[in-house]
Each structure stands twice: as C-alpha cells, then as structure tokens.
Amino acid sequence: MWALSCVWSAAPIRFRSSAESGGVMIGRDTLGRFDRYCELLDSLTGETPVISDVTPQVVGDGPVRAVSYIGTPEPGYVTGFTYGLSLSSHPDWGPRGRELSITVRADDVEWSRVPAMIVAALRGVCPFSPGQVLGYMEPYTEGSPMNSIVLTEPAFEHGPRLLDLSHDEVDAKRRDLVEIVGAYPIHSSEREFVYSHGFDAFWGLEWDRFDPARTPVA
Rg for the chain (alpha carbons), in Å? Predict the structure, then answer.
C-alpha cells in the first residue's frame, strides 16, 4: 500500500477524485503532446527510450507512462521520466504542469519506473513539490531496502528544467509548460529524519544520490 508522506503538512490525507483536486487538463491527453514530450527528452539524452504504461489509481485521469533511458547519462545508470502527472493540475503549480525524473546507478531498469508508479498512485492527492518525501510500505525493487523518495532539483543536467510542449500556434498565455522535479530514493529512516530535521538538513549530509544500494546516513 502506498503511503503519502509530506513534510509540509501534518494533516491526514485521503484519496481525492480529479474533480476535487483540480481535475484533468481537458484536451492535453493527445498523442501529439506525448510525442513532443518524448522528442524533447530524446534530444536531451541523445537516446531512444523504452516506454511502458503504469495503471493509474484513477483511470479517468488519463494515462501514466514511464519513459526509461537505459545507460543514461552513462553506462551503468538508468534514467526515467514520468508522463501523466502533467495531465492533472494542482493549486501549487500555477499554470505549469509537473513530471518527475529519476537517475540511479543500477542495472535494474525497474528503478526508472518507480516515479511513474508513485504518480499512478498519488496523482490528484499530492503536489509533488521539492522538499517533500513520499513513502511506500514495501521496497521499491528487489535487492534494495529503499521505500521512499525525496523530491528536489532533477539530477539530469543536460537540458532545461522547464519543457514547453505547446503547439507552435498556441498563444503565449496558454503555453503548455512542464516542470521536471527530481526524485531520489532514500531509506525510511532518512524519511523520518526529514520529518524531524527538515529537507535542508538531510540534503546537506554526505551521501551518494545515485546509489540505491547504499547504507542509511540517518
């Protein structure tokens, strides 16, 4: 079972429909939009991705996909981007949408799908804001005990953090802008450390951001 863990709020969280949380951005879910997204990512990475679907908690809110780049940014790494979070909206986002990215040093391509799994479970519930930690009841993948992520700047530095998926003819006031938020796997004890000491205290510790097999630092 997924567990939402947000350091910005101690209030209880319940699953909400898209209508309650701001709703799906009507008309955004098109093949052309997804193609533009992949084209931008391909140009940033210089690679061709493996694309897989993840069943969302609320199917009517649109698809959730994992866009996985194996051997990116270099051999021995995998990088994954989500698609589908930006089909929803949240008051914290303003006119922009959001998607997640992850980069880890691992042979297991399943790591590149972890953010998409989280989006599929928590879209419409969570703003996915930098500084948040999100947890799961079980480890994300076999061979690693990590079951949480912390959100902040993306690790992938080969392009802009803000992507424009607009049609060329779209008015500048209605640009389809998508912010990429980075996701970093952490231990449950480190998640608790963020609760107690805050994001900055945890991020300032010395730990390998890309190693899902490392031991806890907190």
Answer: 17
Q: Tokens 């399943």 — which residue?
A: 110
Q: What is the pLDDT of residues 140-164, one digit of tens each?
A: 999 899 999 999 999 876 566 789 9
> What tokens appear for 37 in the block?
């997204």
How many Å apart are CA 25 and CA 43, to the nearest integer?
Answer: 26
- Whole-structure pTM value: 0.86
Q: Give 172-215 pLDDT, tens digit per residue.
A: 567 899 999 999 999 999 999 999 999 999 999 999 999 999 99
Distances (CA, A) of 72 to 106, 134, 154, 173: 11, 24, 14, 34
Count helices and strands (H / E) in the chain: 5, 9
CA-based torsion, 91, 175, 59, 114: positive or negative: negative
Q: What DSSP designation does 214 have?
A: P
- Closest among 94, 76, 75, 96 to 85, alpha carbons compared: 96
